[in-house]
Amino acid sequence: PPLFSSLPFSSNTRDDKATVQPMWPSANASSLPRKIDFLFTRDYNSVDPPHRKPHQVGVQGGFLILKPNQTDFDLMIRLIKLGGNFTQRHGWGGKEHQYGGYYGAATIQGFLPYYYGLFASERALELNRCTYNNMVDEPRHPESNVCRTLEKDCEDCQQKSIAEIYTAHFTICQKPWECMLNQHIPLCIQLHRAWHSIRHDLEHGWTQGSVDEYQAKQHRSTNQTNRHHNNSNSDDGDDEMVKIRSWTHGNCARREDYIPIVFPPSFHGAE
Predict the structure, then answer these.
(1) CA 112, CA 97: separation in Å to the nearest integer?
(2) CA 109 to chain centre
(3) Per residue in 132-187, pLDDT tens?
(4) Cα of 161 vs its chain's centroid, Å
(5) Rounded to whole angstroms, how far apart are CA atoms 192 and 177?
(6) At a CB cut-off of 8 Å and minimum separation 6, what does 176 contact?
(7) SS3 29
């Protein structure tokens, strides 16, 4: 059966989480693909507008959903072996199609938009970049103020409600386990806190008897005591340290000082 054949799709809204939201809403729902084998988002930050049209921009490597298809795979291999008219300057498809000119263009981030743009466009759907794989990036180029998507009015992913986001890509916000806590972008703070809450819930479940002999609280307390002693001469203020520990459920002892998960002894491979 088609990938996600039972999912409801939205053709004209960007604020209804009950539906799958395309990047380019259409007034006519019948214009959406009837059979979908590839769902993706694009990395519009990789190209300075207007050097590439939206359909030429590379896919974002952090969010790719493909239905396995032997026919597609065989054709992909054949195209790669034949070269696909690839050039360093223009990318896949050469000057005529220009699926390239950005990071990762020679590999999956350029090849997949080339393949699904020219050979299987009727089975691919680009999803809303702020709802799926939200990178919390600026919608406009900092110098030209042009929308990176070349729209007249573009959605600002930094203003997206966390309740409307399905997945996030920790790149601009940095990784939660690096304990950087980007306080300049409110959505980054919310996403980091959500990540640490998920870890907290995981360990809390282990302590409730789902995993024998796990004592996360004792482990964390010991680690925090040792870290506080080792960093007693740090210039970090006590107020910031308290805030960081609060926001991260104690997963960060202080800035750039992450306390890793210690897996229960019963887990396979645990020491």
Answers:
(1) 13
(2) 14
(3) 999 999 999 999 999 999 999 999 999 999 999 999 999 999 999 999 876 789 99
(4) 16
(5) 9
(6) 170, 191, 192, 195, 196, 248, 251
(7) helix
